[in-house]
Design brief:
It is built from 21 helices and ten strands. The protein has 658 residues and is α+β, with helices and mostly antiparallel strands. It is elongated and about 100 Å long. Pfam families: FtsX.
Length: 658
């Protein structure tokens, strides 16, 4: 027998089992498309240029989707091969050797692999471009975001999933290699043994999820959040799979032991049926839970970033106009002269344009990095560093009093301090040979918007700031010079057009000196909305991808369970159960499967809030209310969509069972 014979037989098998293969091919194509589109975002120009955080997050997301896709394809393949065990057993009865059956399965796998991967790459190209065009039209952002991919992405996708389908082939071959044909003929009718469950696996699931939650709850700063987010996600995903597989079994067995609940017709059928199929059920439920979590996090965070655009602008630009005077190449006398002169110059320029300066804030400052060891400040190099040190700004008391509207007096051995983590335990701080007695400053320096832990020291004399700068340079001679700089920020009255015109004038003024740099909130507003609108764009795109995955898994799950339950319920009706009781028992199972993933996903996202909030700080969002409202809205919206999915797929289930 040549390969043409086996190929034609494989094609005939796929056609004769189209009721099984069509959902299988559609599901595998869709899940590969999801991975392909996700990995394509890694090479997207918007993702690469807008933020250094995005490529890292999408790389993590691609790995998570890859792991999920692997599990999902194995899951739907196990259902397929289970339904075909009788057919494979018949081959043995008819005289085909196992190596011949293996060849048939090889060509079947080869065909399904080619159709799934080729279909996914084509659908990914078409869907990606069309959906990007649609979102560009609906959101009407100032700048269009174009869909892009690369041949390397397509090759990686094809190679990865060719390997996944190779594993499914080995699994399928193993199903008949170690079984006799007679047993295979009964394979579809054989029920699964009652899962025993493992207390160790159940405890491990709680430990893994608790570990992931713990990382989120104890995260120190936004940069740590980015580096540890992927680990937390993997831990929760692994824990979720184990929890659904083992935890659900313990719950069902506990219900089974409760005689008041179990020994009633409806619960008896539902509990016993779910218990015997829970291993397969649990994987599907865990998949839905993970995808639901991804939808909620992706959409709610990007909605938060877009809704909080004004907040991010205010955090990024403390005032409408922000001028920084770099003191690296200036003497202290030159710095002080320009510091005072520029404030008058800005008022004059505003007056020429018939604008009035309001809320001017100005101060001189020194920026250094270090850590507190006891009460001694030990200097360290700043960014980039493996362990981000404490970010320290040293201000002059005179400038602080004017900025805060206070009249505080300090002696030479005293200093005010602000720490983003709250009050310090230390009563004094030692810098070099100088010791300062600390008093907490009653002023908010906006530490919530800081990416790293921040401390502000306020000293009475400018000479003391110079002394700290010299100590920093002595301890870290290889580091960049720590210069005393100055900041001047102010608001004005007038229209937005007038403010933009003033911003352009200030930009021209600053370009005349290498020591000056100017930023205007109004000038950045359009670009900021465009960038945050792009984040919303990506969030909606990912949310739709994950929702499609949820639909596919739910549909495939209902179909597989319908085929498993059909013969059982036909038998139940023959022994006297009416259709209403059968319908009620199946309804309770479906409701269970509907509620459990969405409730667990919501709990996951609630515990993910601390780490997500830290990551949002990187984008300048600090408002808890904004995220809470976005989160609540997305959960309600996704629950409504999921309810519609449930209603549609449950009809498919009932039609199969009946």
């Amino acid at each position: 027998m040549n390969n043409r014979f086996f190929t034609s037989l494989a094609v005939r098998n796929i056609k004769s089992n189209k009721q099984l293969y069509v959902p299988y091919l559609l599901s595998s194509t869709a899940i590969i498309t999801m991975f392909y589109l996700m990995s394509s975002l890694l090479t997207n120009k918007f993702v690469q240029e807008r933020s250094s955080v995005l490529p890292t997050l999408f790389a993590m997301g691609t790995i998570v989707i890859g792991i999920f896709s692997f599990i999902f394809i194995l899951y739907i393949n196990s259902f397929l091969i289970k339904r075909r065990k009788k057919e494979i057993g018949l081959y043995g009865i008819l005289g085909l050797e196992k190596k011949h059956v293996a060849k048939i399965l090889f060509f079947e796998t080869l065909i399904t692999t080619f159709v799934s991967i080729a279909g996914a790459l084509i659908v990914g190209q078409v869907f990606g471009r069309l959906f990007f065009m649609l979102l560009n039209y609906l959101l009407r952002l100032p700048t269009n975001i174009n869909y892009s991919t690369s041949p390397m992405t397509a090759l990686i996708t094809a190679g990865l999933f060719a390997g996944v389908f190779a594993i499914t082939y080995l699994y399928n071959v193993s199903q008949f290699t170690f079984a006799n044909p007679i047993k295979l003929l009964k394979g579809k009718k054989e029920g699964e043994k009652e899962p025993k469950g493992s207390i160790l696996l159940f405890i491990l699931s709680i430990v893994l999820i608790g570990w992931g939650y713990g990382i989120s709850l104890t995260i120190a700063d936004p940069l740590s959040a980015i580096s540890k987010f992927f680990l937390a996600v993997l831990l929760v995903i692994m824990g979720t799979y184990l929890l659904f597989i083992t935890g659900s079994i313990y719950i069902l067995k506990a219900l089974k032991k409760n005689k008041r609940i179990y020994y009633r017709p409806g619960p008896f059928i539902s509990i016993s049926g779910m218990l015997y199929r829970m291993k397969q059920n649990a994987v599907g439920l865990a998949n839905i839970c993970i995808l639901a979590s991804m939808v909620i996090i992706a959409v709610s965070t990007t909605v938060t970033i877009f809704v909080g655009t004004e907040e991010t602008l205010e955090n990024r630009f403390p005032k409408e106009n922000n001028m920084t005077l770099n003191g690296t190449d200036l003497s202290q006398e030159e710095l002080n002269t320009q510091f005072v002169g520029l404030q008058g110059k800005f008022r004059e320029e505003a007056q020429k344009m018939e604008l009035k300066v309001t809320d001017m804030e100005s101060y001189r400052y020194l920026t250094v990095f270090g850590n507190l060891e006891g009460n001694r400040l030990v200097f360290e190099e700043g960014f980039p560093a493996a362990n981000v040190p404490l970010y320290i700004q040293v201000l002059l008391l005179e400038d602080f009093n004017e900025m805060a509207g206070k009249q505080i007096e300090l002696s030479n051995g005293e200093a005010l301090y602000y720490h983003s983590k709250g009050a310090l335990n230390q009563q004094n701080i030692v810098i070099g040979d100088q010791e300062f007695k600390l008093k907490e400053a009653d002023y908010d320096f906006g530490g919530e918007a800081a990416i790293v832990t921040t401390m502000v020291l306020i000293v009475p004399e400018l000479s003391q700031i110079e002394m700290i700068s010299e100590i920093y340079q002595q301890e870290l001679p290889q580091a960049n010079p720590a210069s005393i700089d100055a900041f001047i920020g102010w608001n004005t009255d007038g229209t937005n057009a007038q403010k933009k015109a003033l911003g352009k004038q200030m930009k021209q003024l600053s370009s005349a000196s290498e020591s000056l740099s100017f930023e205007s909130r109004e000038a950045f507003r359009e670009e900021w909305y465009s960038m945050n609108g792009g984040f919303l764009f990506l969030g909606i795109f990912l949310g739709l991808l994950f929702t499609i995955g949820t639909v596919l898994i739910t549909y495939f799950k209902q179909v597989s369970e319908g085929f498993d339950d059909r013969e059982k319920f036909q038998i139940m009706q023959k022994v006297g159960l009416d259709k209403d009781m059968v319908h009620e028992s199946t309804r309770s199972q479906i409701v269970w499967m509907f509620l459990l993933p969405i409730v667990t996903a919501t709990i996951h996202v609630i515990f993910a809030y601390p780490i997500v909030r830290k990551m949002l700080t990187v984008f300048g969002v600090t408002s808890e209310i904004t995220w809470l409202l976005s989160f609540t809205g997305v959960v309600v919206a996704f629950s409504a969509i999921y309810w519609m999915i449930y209603r549609i797929t449950s009809r498919v289930y009932y039609s199969i069972v009946k």
